[in-house]
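Reminder: ligand-aware prediction takes two inputs, not one.
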Amino acid sequence: MGATASVSLAAAVADAGGLGMLGTAAMPHGLVVSALDALAARTAGVFGVNFLVPFLDREVMIQAAQRAKVVEFFYGSPDAELVEIAHAGGALVSWQVGSVAEAVAAADSGCDLVIAQGIEAGGHIRGEVSLLPLLTGVLDAVRVPVLAAGGIGGPRSVSAVLAAGAAGARVGTRFLAAEEADVHPVYRAALLAAGAEDTELTTAFSTWWDAPHRVLRGCIAAASADEDEFVGETDWGNHRVPIPRFCVLHPLTATTGRVEAMAHYAGQSVGEVRKVQPAAEIMAELVRDLGC
Ligand SMILES: Cc1cc2nc3c(=O)[nH]c(=O)nc-3n(C[C@H](O)[C@H](O)[C@H](O)COP(=O)(O)O)c2cc1C
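Here is what comes back for the chain with flavin mononucleotide:
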């Protein structure tokens, strides 16, 4: 979940028994290692770290693999060398995939697990197929554990993907309403007001990274109506990052400017985002029907 998957959110999910993921997507490279050290100090639970391949810094990943239980890659062809480097640091390696062929390539590259992402998902979308047909194909094709992602926002869909054979569920959008997530209040309010039909798969927010993504439809209209080159900036302490109009960056708590015109990533699971609540409460609800 990019930078919304903050140290606080990953720690809260790990504390609640989930695999808490730190998103490094928009994070300046120099902050990743200290964030992982802070995460280790905050939780005794299990956490991982996610890298977008187009923005990967190998040195940072090597250090991350010595700190996180799982190193995950997304949006690049599975690469046995990267997997080997992460393994050498002591981490398990996961690859989020959008097709059966990519899942096979990830398993052949030595990954310990794969995440099958359907096009219902929020954020950047790798493939062209909905979750259930993708999951079915991936489960038939690989022997490593397969997690399901995309449109899963509550206990019914968690149970459904487990019944279909997934080893677990990856949940993104629902956690944007966790108290611990780093989400700007304007973005959060838009999520709370939206239903499953209010998202759009688009290439609108492609400055700095040209890849399809699912957002709330309203932010496309707001950005189209804006005329300035920049719509705001995010303050990362020593780093101030300007946000051009139609930029890939999404609004965090420390973002200022015309937030309504920035990328509001959301999956079709957004209909299950109904209130702001602690991550532990969301976790308890997600596993409600599993008897654990
Ligand atoms: C705000 C947001 C940011 C995301 N950023 C990333 C990312 O940096 N890396 C990644 O692997 N996936 C990212 N994703 C996609 C998730 O890993 C996952 O596929 C998706 O959230 C699942 O669908 P859901 O949002 O309906 O739960 C992001 C999703 C959202 C909603």
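The longest helix spans residues 32-42. The longest strand covers residues 230-236. We will return to this case in the review session.
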